[in-house]
Design brief:
By secondary structure, the chain is an alpha/beta fold. It is built from nine helices and twelve strands. About 40% of the residues lie in helices and about 25% in strands. The strands form three sheets. The chain has a five-stranded mixed β-sheet with strand order 4-3-5-12-6, sandwiched between helices. β3, α5 and β4 form a beta-alpha-beta unit. The longest helix has 28 residues. Keywords: DNA-binding, Transcription, Transcription regulation.
Length: about 300
């Protein structure tokens, strides 16, 4: 018996760690359940540590098992990335850039970057995935994304973060709201209105900033609805379910019966930042970051 951990051990371990059920994991791997149990026991013997707690009712991960599961997932994500990069090089392409983004980044920043990449590095392939802020942070940390566009106040110290776009906020009202745009004289008059916000879990920084805008006007907003999509927020405003405050750039591309009042005279701004791993291994990332940050 080999006294070293092999890739097959990690594959078997991860299947059981994800399913927490030996029979289901064995079916997923197309091997017998006794054979899988032997492989896991062999792995635990080599590592000299228990990875699973097993009884007749359930299978659970030990603290060591939880730690190993996160590490193995990272290893496999990285191996997938290496495989993709090798295939692209073999096809004569320079590589692939995997980009995470918030919907608001698609208004200006991401499209401009994609056009620059296409013009300067036509052999680079890009893939896009719309994700919430913290999902992007986790994906960059775990090597599932090369960079992300987020609205967060801080990131783990293994990541870099740089502001790439600063926007004003705008008040969103139903088209027939009984006030002309030119009559706007401050947020104070909206103290009794229902507000529709992006979910706090989706973007805590945005949520706290909107709360501060209202607090500066002397009131705490009465929140009636939350969403993670601008279209949903605008639709709710259109149907008189409340009013909203959003980054001004979000008004582009939506044809809805709402009106926007830019809040130019408040100090709060909506900052969009790019994040990437300090110790990245993607050769494409450096060139594309230079394109993004060149102005």
């Amino acid at each position: 018996m080999s006294n070293q951990i092999e890739l097959r051990h990690l594959t078997y371990f991860l299947a059981v760690a994800q399913e927490l059920h030996f029979r289901k994991a064995a079916e997923k791997l197309f091997i017998s359940q006794p054979g899988l149990s032997r492989q896991i026991k062999q792995m635990e013997d080599i590592l000299e540590t228990q990875l699973f707690e097993r009884n007749k009712k359930k299978v659970t991960l030990t603290p060591a098992g939880h730690y190993l599961k996160a590490e193995v997932e990272y290893i496999f994500n990285h191996l997938e990335k290496v495989e993709r990069q090798l295939k692209l090089v073999g096809d004569g392409n320079s590589g692939e850039l995997r980009i995470g983004f918030l919907g608001s980044a698609m208004q200006e920043v991401v499209p401009k970057l994609l056009l620059k990449i296409k013009e300067r590095y036509p052999k680079v392939k890009t893939s896009l995935e719309e994700l919430a802020n913290f999902a992007q942070v986790d994906a960059v940390l775990n090597d599932q994304l090369d960079l992300g566009f987020v609205r967060v106040s801080r990131v783990p110290n293994t990541l870099e973060m740089k502001t790439v776009f600063t926007d004003t906020f705008s008040l969103v009202l139903p088209e027939r709201y009984p006030m002309l745009t030119r009559e706007f004289d401050g947020m104070e008059r909206f103290a009794k209105e229902d507000f529709i916000l992006f979910s706090q879990a989706y973007s805590p920084l945005y949520y706290d900033t909107i709360m501060s805008i209202c607090q500066d006007a002397g009131f705490a907003p009465k929140i009636s609805h939350k969403s993670v999509h601008a279209h949903t927020i605008f639709k709710l405003v259109e149907n008189h379910m409340g009013i909203a405050i959003v980054p001004t750039s979000l008004q582009n591309g939506f044809q809805m019966r709402v009106k926007f009042i830019e809040l130019k005279d408040i100090p709060q701004r909506a900052e969009l930042s790019v994040i990437w791993k300090k110790e990245h291994t993607n050769p494409v990332l450096k060139n594309c970051m230079e394109l993004l940050l060149e102005g």
